[in-house]
Amino acid sequence: MRKLGIFGLGVAAWMAAAAPATATENWKLATAAQPGSVLYDVITAFIEDFNREMNGEIEMEFQFVGNEQEMTQQVIRGRLQMGATSLAGAGVAVPEGTVMNLPYAWENDAERAFVTDEFVLPVLQDLYAAKGLMLYEVADVGWNDVVCTFACLTPADVDGIKARISPSPASKIFWQRMQANGVQMPLSEAWPALETGLVVAADLPFLYYITTPAAQSAPHYVLTRHYHHPSAWIINARLYNGLTDKQKEILARVKPDTAETRQLVADTEKPKMAEFVAQGGFVHELTEEQRSKWAELVIPGQQEMVDVIGGRAQEVYDAIQEGKKAWAAKNN
What we know:
By secondary structure, this protein is α/β, with parallel strands linked by helices. The protein contains 15 helices and nine strands.
């Protein structure tokens, strides 16, 4: 019996020595982005860099989740480790973040980037942390514009029509101000709704729009530029806090460069629009006068939107206003 026991201990020791020192931890990065979109390309490049640098300690894979609200909840619960969503999609958990979608809030991209990074980001990080999320990065999805099954170039064209409203308060206030009959639904339900005529309009960022069935069922894209979609890269906070210092350093090192990502979105849009038109789609440019007709109906609703969101929404709004003043002082 003693010899058998010694033999057994020897086998156990051999097996322990042969086994890897640490098992690979598996992560999933979830997003609604699809192949053909800039965000998808940025995410897949990030996953490659992450896996290479982690050297087997953590292995990340792409996970498509069409419903951003559900995806955000799954990251909070830890069933998904990481996600990339619009701030509107994450609004189910952090509604105050959707103040960043405030219609007609920005003079230009440079102002928006400055205000976001220097004034709003710290507030957002605190809000996300309170919900169990580490806000890893705020990058770009693009500008939201109106899409229709017909050429809807003026507010009068959409008065009384049925339009898909996203869960974002910005989308709701926009369509209400246009006097449209809004139907709120997640992205996954928007495509069949447009195809069957349940709704005849929606608002989407172009580089995402062209990867969806909406590009065929609602081929008229109208450049209202009524609000902007930042993208929120989120990590389950408990999981992030459990990483080693080395792993956190790797995460910081492989994070996509925010300025480069924003520029990539800007540089890609026009060529993609030209392709879309060549394939039979319609991109309707608006003059400043035409665009102002949309804006003048919506801007009076900005404070109403902030009030409806509640919580610390006013704090986010105030940070935006402070940043806009700093930008104006810097550039005058």
